[in-house]
Amino acid sequence: MVDQKKTTFLVFLFMLLLESTFEQETRSSSTVASTVEKSALLELRSSLGLRSRDWPVKGDPCLNWNGVSCDENGSVSMINISGFRRTRIGNQNPQFSVDSLVNLTRLIVFNASRFSLPGPIPVLFGLSVLTLEVLDLSSCSIIGTIPADLARLSSLTVLDLSKNSINGSIPLSLTSLQNLTVLDLSSNSVTGSIPASIGALAKLQRLNLSSNGLTTSIPPSLGDLSALVDLDLSFNDLSGSVPSELKELRNLKTFVIAGNRLSGSLPPDMFGFLSKLQIVDFRGTGFKGVLPSRLWSLPELKILDLSGNQFSNELPNTTISLDSTVSLLNISGNMFYGNLTLLLRRFQVLDLSRNYFEGKVLDFIPINASLSNNCLQGPMNQRELSVCALFYSEKGLAFDNFGRPEEKTKKPNSPWFSGRNIVIVAAVGGSILVMLLLILLPITVSFCVRRRNRSSSTSTHPRGRHNGVGPLPLDETHTSRGVGLSVNFASLGSTFTYQQLLNATREFGDSNLLKKGKSGDLFKGVLDTGIQIVVKRISLEATKNSEAYLTEMDFFSRFAHPRIVPFLGKCLENTTHKFLVYKYMPNRDLPSSLFYKINSIIDDGLKSLDWITRLKIALGAAEGLSYLHHDCSPPIVHRDVQASSILLDDKFEVRLGSFSKACHQENNDRPRKISRLLSRLSSQSSQENVTGSSAAGTSSLLSQAEGLTRSGGGAMGSSARGSSRGASSRISVKDV
């Protein structure tokens, strides 16, 4: 009985071992590559210097190697080493050594993009690895020419050799790859012409030959690529005109031929059948003449860039396709003319600069649209009257003279000096004189009081630079050319390079110019990180005080407050210009936001800010000045407060700017002159107690706020400027 049990147990154990062995052999035959292919992969791993973390030696290539895939028979079908890194030894002598690929007889995909393979493309790709369908060698540091033997890869659908240093011409044999859907040779040094037989690639959907040195003309056979979706021939040396055969590319979505030396005009029926176009980039190609009207009404258009050409016609006065919104329209640097039309409502970002548009700017034009160097009524930086008049006269058209009536010769019998007009002039002149007297009277009284106080304090406070208002205090860290201003350059914001600011502001172009100022020109810019900035460019030769920028930097190195514009950094490497970088304020300054336009073509009037927002701005400006006068040590006098110095963020919160004239106020314990003056004026009008004087002072401050809301910033600029320059001590309701 015991022997029978032992026999049964041994049989059961044997069956388990047999089953385990069978499963192991089955798993090995279905997942692990053959011995020949595994040896080929190990040899490839060694020649390319791949790391063990990507391709472990003891791991199963089909299961554990990153980027390696096998088919159901265990044969390697895909190798993707895109972005892999070499070992330290592999980086010492990197080479394009992939000879072991000849043993991978079922390889379909080889992707080595962004993996350094210095050297020419091996001929084995066209002689041995004939099963390839995808060959991606982009950004691999490849040199040499394109092998003509690649044409033997009859199953190839994707050939990407972009972003290398390939030279020579495009082999004619490549046009025999009938299954090719993607051909990308961009960003190389390919020369010669585009093969005329390229139209034989019937399945081609994407063709990118940009950023090379291709010459001659665009072959008409491109019109035979009926499946083409993306076409990019930009930044070559192509010449001639655009073939009319390209109108047959009915599936085309991207059409880019910018940066060539093309000529002539576009065929009138060019865009008749290209209804799927989304991106059209013809910038800097040299086209002239009339732009086909069909282009404006393409239903799926997203980006239209025609800048830097010589197109010359009026915009269509139509509302076609207003339901579809185009992200970008750039037609700068052409010769478009006439009035702005409703067609522009379709676009979100507009650059119409350097044309000859006339008339008024419509309400629906975006506030950030670039309109400089035109002949428009209202916007700044327009062309000269003589230039606009000459252009329109050459077209046989009449110019609107910027909306101003033409000057007429005065008639000898002018009724200007009639009795009624003399009475009107006398009344207006008398009113102005009375207003001047009312303005000059308090100024004269203030001057007299200041002079008396100065003479009385001579014995205790000698005259000199430190009596009253003077430059900011010295700091021994760094002194500038005898001026006495100090700035801690290392800790003050970020340090930008001149090239960074050139890229951010489009080389300080007119389209980015916000304002020209005495202390410097302001430009809008966008950093690589997407942050919007304002760059003040200060010319050391044109600015009277070449050290004014140091005053402003010294201020920002000492003080920061929510009511002061954020300072981001500086660029001081240029010898003729200095640059200060601030955070961009979406609502610009007070004059720009006090009256703003709404996107309405029915209501023609200007819409002003509501009363709550105006009061919010007035209080915010007062808070900023209060911080300078009372919380800074020593107190700071702005000396340049005006409407344009009051900046507004996206929520209309006030940020004070323009600190190039700021200075500190010393002798903070001296008598408060303005408080004494206001108290004296108040006591002359009524013999009230201190409470009455405080009410009068508060009423005066509220009147200034009311003036701001009524006059659009002029009262605020005048009142604040007078307070900043004349007040040498802090003023509050208690002082009054």
TrEMBL record:
Chief localisation class: membrane
GO CC, any one term: membrane
Protein's UniProt keywords contain Cell cycle: no
Keyword Transmembrane included in the entry's annotation: yes
Low complexity biased stretches: 680-703, 717-730
Superkingdom, taxonomy of origin: Eukaryota
SUPFAM superfamilies, alphabetized: L domain-like, Protein kinase-like (PK-like)
Annotated compartments: Membrane
Protein keywords: ATP-binding, Glycoprotein, Leucine-rich repeat, Membrane, Nucleotide-binding, Repeat, Signal, Transmembrane, Transmembrane helix
Extent of the signal sequence: 1-23
Positions of transmembrane segments: 422-449
Membrane topology: Single-pass type I membrane protein
GO MF terms held by the record: ATP binding; protein serine/threonine kinase activity; protein tyrosine kinase activity; receptor serine/threonine kinase binding
Residue ranges constituting the Protein kinase domain according to the UniProt record: 508-736
Disordered: region residues: 454-475, 680-736
Family: Belongs to the RLP family.
Protein name: Protein kinase domain-containing protein
